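Records of this kind hold a single protein each, on a pair of labelled lines. With that in mind, the following record should read easily:
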Amino acid sequence: MTLHRDLAAGRWWTLTLAEQMGNAGSEVGRAIRAKAAGQPDRFEPAVARALDLLDLTLQDRRWSGPRLREIARAREVVCDFLVGENEYRTTSESLDAYFTAFAYAARRDR
């Protein structure tokens, strides 16, 4: 079950990869800020929304091969950083930079 029913119903599939990842990155950023502020009431829903958007992106049939692997790896790193042991030694700054690049690309391509 998706939290973003309107997106899953069709609109998500019209977005570019940059737009999809930029939107997911916005939720990742919200989760990072809520975690840093010690606000679990904001953190948990933001994590759920971020993972929901990444899962929708993984389901997009347009993405395959290296693109699909990168999306899956991004999801893995986000999970490891936000709720795991941070085995990859990710920083909030590196996640922000990664997803911000997609947001910039999406705006550039408009």
